[in-house]
TrEMBL record, chain A:
InterPro entries: FAD-dep_OxRdtase_2_FAD-bd (IPR003953), FAD/NAD-bd_sf (IPR036188), Fum_R/Succ_DH_flav-like_C_sf (IPR037099), Fum_Rdtase/Succ_DH_flav-like_C (IPR015939), SdhA/FrdA/AprA (IPR030664), Succ_DH/fumarate_Rdtase_cat_sf (IPR027477). Its cofactor is FAD. Gene3D superfamilies: FAD/NAD(P)-binding domain, Fumarate reductase/succinate dehydrogenase flavoprotein-like, C-terminal domain, Succinate dehydrogenase/fumarate reductase flavoprotein, catalytic domain. It holds the Pfam family Succ_DH_flav_C. GO terms for molecular function: steroid dehydrogenase activity, acting on the CH-CH group of donors. Residues 448-561 form the Fumarate reductase/succinate dehydrogenase flavoprotein-like C-terminal domain. The active site is at 287 (proton acceptor). Residues 12-393 form the FAD-dependent oxidoreductase 2 FAD-binding domain. It comes from the Bacteria. It comes from Sulfobacillus acidophilus. This is Fumarate reductase/succinate dehydrogenase flavoprotein subunit. Transmembrane segments: none annotated. Keywords: FAD, Flavoprotein, Oxidoreductase.
TrEMBL record, chain B:
This is Succinate dehydrogenase/fumarate reductase iron-sulfur subunit. PANTHER family: SUCCINATE DEHYDROGENASE [UBIQUINONE] IRON-SULFUR SUBUNIT, MITOCHONDRIAL, SUCCINATE DEHYDROGENASE IRON-SULFUR PROTEIN. Keywords: 2Fe-2S, 4Fe-4S, Iron, Iron-sulfur, Metal-binding, Oxidoreductase. GO terms for molecular function: 2 iron, 2 sulfur cluster binding; 4 iron, 4 sulfur cluster binding; electron transfer activity; metal ion binding; oxidoreductase activity. It comes from Sulfobacillus acidophilus.
Length: 590, 256
């Protein structure tokens, strides 16, 4: 066979991922720095998963509720994360989010307005005050489109539909990344002084999911194989309200904005069941609580015809619903033949977000591999055991920028591009081409379907030591079988071939999820174990960190850093800071 | 509902291709993309089709279904009961493989549109009523179906003369922004080629986001160009008023 060729491209900073985090990082690394910055995305520009975000971006402007401030946002985020978040990450986030949102406004984003002409903010689950800056129910589209246009007008090269399959690390330092163009299967080597990973989460591991096809955890898996640490992998968020019917749209998100705008949840008996689980916050309780409540109602035989709960916004009137939730209105009308301005609809939990991910430094987003930075959903530390709605979009902006700065500073301080180990590249090309030559006939799509089934049944919203162990055994069997995944056709735009690598990445991360879920012998946030139903104080001080040597995943406990006094004090009032200081501030119910 | 759908899917590459017949079991509420996924997962794993969200949010899955430009994830199969469903790639753009086309031309045009240049720093003070009309344009998911449909672009030569409807609304979005300080009228009149549009409204008809591209963006932009270049009284008044879109601004080319 002819020697395989590859193209070599050199960058000072390479950004892998063009979602909100990647684009924000790219702009920061490039603008005014004179550095050569490249961005790689495995789909087209502007289509990344971020585009799907609906409800809004959280920032404590207090445009409607004056007592809001970074302290309250900090308080809400730590509480919802059940205190295993990195406090410093949360502090930076809460303080910087408003500036990042304003920056977006000056780059062309047009948020809905208050009567005073300021940015409108909507209430969301477990946010003390009205805090989510939004444009209707398509805030993610606004964020990514604004960042996309900002990025292409900055001096950045964008490589669309390129999949990276390997991180190249030498002597503990990142030196580049390797992959292929999806359009024709050509190989490409990016040599880089610094790399930012912004590849998003791995929600496609589960059967019922709100995530786009890209969320297969590539970046996390690539970095993990290259020696980076993963943390809190057991923490997977199930959003309470996914669509249920018809089958083809099962899992598709129903934005929390529906409840934010006043939507009510009822069981098959017409009862507002949230009063049993969280009488104070009701529908706007945190996601883990609402998701579990719906799950329990269904288990208790009070589910809707297709196994969910009723959500109803029709009392708000057709005009209001169409104005504030146009996407939801259209989504149900075209895909489910249902008019949400007139009738209630079925919802059930859907896999939504992965809180775990690459362990990074709060200030610079550096991983434990020199020169490798991470931001956005692929990174870990901000959300703890449960992410607050709206905190991801502002996360992308705050830490996308910081990762861009981290990579910029690192690249500037680094000399020449390091030499690349040619034999490593040969091996990688062989590995990537192998599915074409294998004798086996295991279909990668079918492996994916079985993985989703398995993770849903054994390591989903409800877990126990027994189910997790059984799941792990089955997963290891499936992994074995997956070694024979094979594919026909050519290297030209061949989705079946691409699926092989997506599946391999998800198999690795699934094992990571199960192994730390087995170790956390309590229930905390999104992690719900029926054999340990209570949240236990001794686990509040522990993060699980995983590393991988190519064969086995090693798990270790790391202490959660305790908050300094000035932050710890915020939790001593018995109420959220803004509420404690001024009784005039109201809870965010509308 | 019948138990099975018959699809004819165009398969091939730049060198040519043909429609291939597939049979797919029917499921309640399924969309064309579901049927294609069934084919991909079970019958032809190398079938090339773009998609990301399967929720009509990302604009990746554009193609032509029974001759009409559509989002595959938003087009229900049950409207075709008893019919053959033919799926072909967008015609305006070069083929890469099967249903996937090379849409890179659009991204090149995107670079030509000057960004918002605010006349004051954020936070902006803007009333909802003043942003209502531009927010409509912000719903665009860049599916390029309007570009695919526009007859000016469909005849490839037109791609040198006209940015196309998608970029008219992108320009409108900035032009009509209450805080914007850039003058894009010369760009519209020249490189942008707004004059090439003869208001057939075909773009508006196919827009999955229901953006009234022609009425709300293109016609007002055409008026701005006409005001500038063809209305001497307005030009005079504007000069006296010293508005930002003065024709005498150095950036403006001579009118041809
Ligand atoms: C339906 C939905 C609604 C949501 N609503 C909200 C909301 O209202 N508010 C909120 O705060 N959050 C929301 N979220 C969460 C939020 O949208 C995501 O967490 C966030 O967008 C992730 O952004 P990111 O930049 O980290 O990555 P992504 O947007 O996932 O982008 C990942 C990028 O990496 C690229 N990539 C991946 N693998 C590779 C590879 N191997 N090679 C090359 N490139 C690769 C992809 O192509 C893509 O460009 C929502 C999520 C969903 C699913
Ligand atoms: S109205 Fe104009 S832009 Fe739209 S399709 Fe017709 S010619 Fe093209
Ligand atoms: S204007 Fe409509 S049809 Fe055109 S690209 Fe945007 S969403 Fe698609
Ligand atoms: S897949 Fe996103 S619009 Fe169809």
């Amino acid at each position: 066979m002819a020697q395989e060729m590859y193209e070599t491209l050199d960058y000072d900073v390479l950004i892998i991922g063009a979602g909100g985090a990647g684009l924000r990082a790219a702009v920061e690394a490039s603008e005014g720095t004179g550095l050569k910055v490249g961005v790689v995305t495995k789909s087209l520009l502007g289509k990344a998963h971020t585009v799907m975000a609906e409800g809004g971006a959280a920032a404590s402007f207090g445009n409607l509720d004056a007592p809001d401030g970074w302290e309250t946002h900090f308080y809400d985020t730590m509480r919802s994360g059940h205190f295993i978040n990195n406090y410093r990450t949360v502090e930076i986030f809460a303080k910087e989010a408003p500036d990042r949102v304003l920056e977006l406004e000056s780059w062309g984003a047009v948020f809905d307005r208050t009567p005073e002409g300021r940015i409108m903010q909507r209430p969301f689950g477990a946010h003390t005050f009205r805090r989510l800056c939004h444009i209707g129910d398509h805030t993610g589209l606004e964020l990514i489109r604004t960042m996309q246009y900002k990025a292409i007008h900055t001096n950045i090269d964008v490589f669309q539909e390129v999949t990276m399959t390997k991180m190249l690390v030498q002597n503990g330092r990142v030196v580049g990344a390797f992959g292929y163009f999806r359009a024709d299967g050509r190989f490409v080597l990016f040599r880089a002084r610094a790399i930012v990973l912004a590849t998003g989460g791995w929600g496609r591991i589960y059967k019922v999911t709100s995530n786009s096809w890209e969320s297969t955890g590539d970046g996390a898996a690539l970095a993990f194989r290259a020696g980076a640490d993963l943390m809190d992998m057991e923490m997977v968020q199930f959003h309470p309200t996914g669509m249920v019917w018809p089958p083809g749209v099962r899992g598709l998100l129903v934005t929390e904005g529906v409840r934010g705008e006043g939507g009510l949840l009822r069981n098959s008996e017409g009862e507002r069941f949230m009063k049993t689980y969280d009488p104070e916050r009701m529908e706007l309780s945190s996601r883990d609580v609402v998701a579990r409540s719906i799950f329990r109602e269904v288990q208790a035989g009070r589910g809707t015809p297709h196994g969910g709960a009723w959500l109803d916004i029709s009392h708000k009137g057709a005009d209001y619903v169409k104005k504030k939730l146009p996407g939801m209105y259209e989504q149900f009308l075209t895909l489910a033949d249902l008019d949400i301005t007139k009738q209630p609809f079925e919802v059930a939990p859907t896999c939504h977000y992965t809180m775990g991910g690459l362990r990074v430094d709060a200030e610079t987003c550096a991983t434990n591999i020199a020169g490798l930075f991470a931001a956005g959903e692929v990174a870990c530390g901000l959300h703890g055991a449960n992410r607050l709605g709206g905190n991801s979009l502002s996360d992308l902006l705050v830490f996308g920028r910081r990762a861009g700065m981290g990579a910029r500073d690192y690249a500037k301080a680094t000399g020449q591009h390091a030499a690349i180990d040619e034999s490593e590249l040969r091996q990688e090309m062989d590995r990537v081409l192998e599915p074409f030559h294998r004798q086996g006939s295991v279909n990668p799509y079918h492996v994916h379907e079985r993985l989703q089934e398995l993770m849903t049944n054994y390591a989903g919203i409800m877990r126990s030591g027994d189910t997790l162990q059984e799941g792990l055994d089955k997963l290891l069997e499936l992994k074995d079988e997956a070694r024979s995944m094979s594919i026909g056709g050519s290297r030209v735009y061949n989705p079946g071939w691409h699926a092989v690598f997506d599946v391999e990445n998800m198999l690795l991360l699934s094992e990571g999820i199960i192994r730390s879920a087995l170790e956390r012998k309590e229930s905390r946030g999104a992690h719900w174990r029926t054999d340990f139903p209570d949240e236990l104080p001794e686990w509040q001080t522990v993060n699980f960190v995983e590393s991988f040597d190519g064969q086995t995943i090693r798990l270790r406990r790391e202490p959660v850093n305790p908050m300094p006094d000035y932050l710890a004090q915020l939790f001593t009032y018995g109420k959220a800071p803004g509420l404690a200081k001024s009784e005039a501030g109201k809870e965010s119910q509308v | 509902m019948s138990d099975e759908f018959k699809l004819m899917v165009w398969r091939g590459d730049a060198s040519g291709g043909a429609e291939v017949e597939y049979h797919v079991p029917a499921e309640t509420g399924m969309v064309v993309l579901d049927a294609l996924h069934y084919i991909e997962h079970n019958l032809a794993p190398d079938l090339a089709v773009r998609w990301n969200c399967k929720a009509a949010h990302c604009g990746s899955c554009s193609a032509e279904v029974n001759g009409e430009p559509k989002l595959l994830c938003k087009t229900r199969m049950d409207q075709y009961v008893g019919q053959t469903v033919t799926v072909r790639p967008m015609k305006t753009f070069p083929i890469i493989k099967d249903l996937v086309t090379d849409v890179s031309w659009n991204y090149k045009v995107a670079k030509e549109v000057p960004l918002l240049a605010p006349t004051a720093p954020a936070p902006f003070n803007m009333q909802q009523i003043d942003v209502d009309r531009i927010q409509e344009f912000h719903r665009c998911i860049e599916c390029f179906l309007c570009q695919d449909t526009c007859h000016v672009l469909r005849d490839h030569a037109g791609q040198n003369k006209y940015f196309g409807p998608r970029y008219m609304i992108k320009i409108a979005e900035f032009e009509m922004h209450p805080m914007d300080g850039v003058d894009r009228v010369p760009l519209l009149a020249h490189e942008g080629g707004v004059g090439m549009c003869n208001v057939t409204k075909c773009c508006t008809e196919v827009c999955p986001q229901h953006i009234r591209i022609t009425d709300n963006a293109i016609i007002p932009l055409k008026e701005r160009v006409a005001d500038r270049y063809y209305d001497p009284i307005k030009i005079l008044l504007r000069r006296l008023g010293g508005k930002k879109d003065d024709v005498s601004e150095p950036k403006t080319h001579a009118v041809t």
